[in-house]
Predict the 3D structure of the following.
Amino acid sequence: MAIEIYWGSGSTFAWRVLLALEAKKLPYASRLLEFSQKEHKTPAFLQMNPRGKVPTLKDGDFVVYESIAILQYLDHKYPQVPLFGTTAEESGAINQDVCEMLSYMEGPVSRITRPLFSGELAGKEQQVQEAAEAVHQEFSRYDARLAHSPWLRGERISASDIVLYPFLPTLLRAAAKPTAEKLKLAYMPFTRHYLHLARWTAAVEALPGYARTYPPHWRQ
Ligand SMILES: N[C@@H](CCC(=O)N[C@@H](CS)C(=O)NCC(=O)O)C(=O)O
């Protein structure tokens, strides 16, 4: 039975898992859930993931959710194209990146994207601008690292790249909202601030299978 991935269009967390499946060239059955139809809250789905969230992955009888846990599972189960390195040192370094991204990027990203995507920006302008400054600090670190290597951890793609990447197009999409025009978002203009990060973004987007990971509703 093929791997089944339950995901939602535009979910940065689910995007990580799709990228990992593509990077590992694993066959999978795509189960795209419609949030507007509450397909992630049906009894059958809640039986797999009682939190009713995506991504959720089913591999035979085994179910796992939480994007980072899924990446770890896939890497142990299907070690070809390792995403968490092959030595203790590589694994430590990549896990350090992942922990930093969860600690220092996820919060600011959601403080920017939630008000801009929900249309509820009023009163939150200051909060959004402060979060954009935090994102700018983090992007500057990654940009400096990418001046020395094609991927965040050397010569090949790893979980560091896969966990970070979905934040970028999501933040750019948020910045393109008409309501964002009046804001000063410190990470914009993106390509002018971060030359290496921009080159790296293009490399991720050139990966075979990338198109299958792209949020379908963004194409409309
Ligand atoms: N920490 C989780 C976050 C998962 C998450 O929040 N998913 C969102 C989509 S971006 C979701 O399913 N939200 C639906 C809901 O909470 O009802 C992960 O890394 O997988």
User: Anything to note?
Assistant: Residues 88-208 form a domain with the Glutathione S-transferase Yfyf (Class Pi); Chain A, domain 2 fold (CATH 1.20.1050.10). The chain has eleven helices and four strands.
